[in-house]
Write a structure and sequence with these properties.
Blueprint lengths: L1 E3 L5 E3 L3 H40 L1 H15 L7 H4 L4 E6 L5 H15 L4 E3 H4 L6 H10 L1 E8 L7 H17 L4 E5 L10 H8 L3 E3 L3 H4 L1
Parallel strand pairs: 3-4, 3-5, 5-6, 6-7
Antiparallel strand pairs: 1-2
Helix pairs in contact: 2-6, 2-7, 6-7
């Protein structure tokens, strides 16, 4: 095929089908490059977002449940300013250790020593939203006492209560979480958060050493 330009010169264009095929291949390769780049960027953004959400999941849970708790009518008082709490300790424990808590802990800490405990099986409102109960108990207690045994981490709510206590510590600037080593197991087998509490020497053993001596 021949074409005439502005200067009336005749120029051969060659095979139009071949030119069209060449342009189509070039355009297709560019489109594939754009699609691949867009897909890679999207995957990267999703991975980074997922990582950030995972690392901050307990902080997000804490904020979410504070909002839900207030929606259900709980309004935190001025305990952090006055130092006066409804309970001396919120006891966090596995359901398998319920008998020990309701018998031994109550007898030793409440009846003998006069501390006021918040215990799920006794003080939580039946039928109410459990995360709200846990959040309220943590905020209304001077500290959270985790009853440590090999069964402690088997319950999702003990894990939840542990992390909510840690979050409350960050926001209130108080060392809230303490451990009672009921059925101790090697420290290195504890979750990382509990290892830190143990290293900070915020734990007591059961039975107390003086009772053994």
């Amino acid at each position: 095929m021949v074409c005439v330009d502005d200067k009336s010169e005749r120029k051969a264009l060659g095979d139009l089908k071949l030119m069209a095929s060449t342009l189509q291949r070039k355009c297709a390769s560019q489109v594939n490059l754009v699609l691949a780049s867009s897909f890679s960027c999207a995957v990267f953004v999703i991975l980074i977002s997922s990582l950030l959400l995972f690392r901050n999941r307990w902080r997000l849970y804490y904020i979410k449940n504070l909002v839900i708790t207030r929606w259900y009518g709980y309004k935190p008082g001025d305990q952090h300013k006055t130092g006066k709490f409804t309970f001396d300790a919120y006891v966090l424990y596995s359901k398998l250790d319920r008998h020990f808590v309701l018998r031994d802990c109550l007898a030793e800490l409440e009846e003998k020593r006069g501390h006021k405990l918040c215990i799920e099986d006794r003080d939580f409102l039946v039928g109410s939203f459990l995360p709200c109960n846990i959040t309220s108990a943590i905020q209304n207690s001077h500290l959270t006492l985790a009853i440590i045994s090999p069964d402690f981490w088997d319950c999702e709510w003990t894990e939840y209560g542990t992390h909510m206590s840690i979050m409350e510590s960050l926001y209130s600037k108080r060392q809230i979480l303490h451990l009672l080593l009921y059925k101790p197991f090697p420290v290195e087998e504890m979750p990382r958060d509990l290892i830190k509490v143990h290293k900070d020497n915020r734990f007591i053993e059961y039975p107390p050493r003086e009772s053994i001596d």
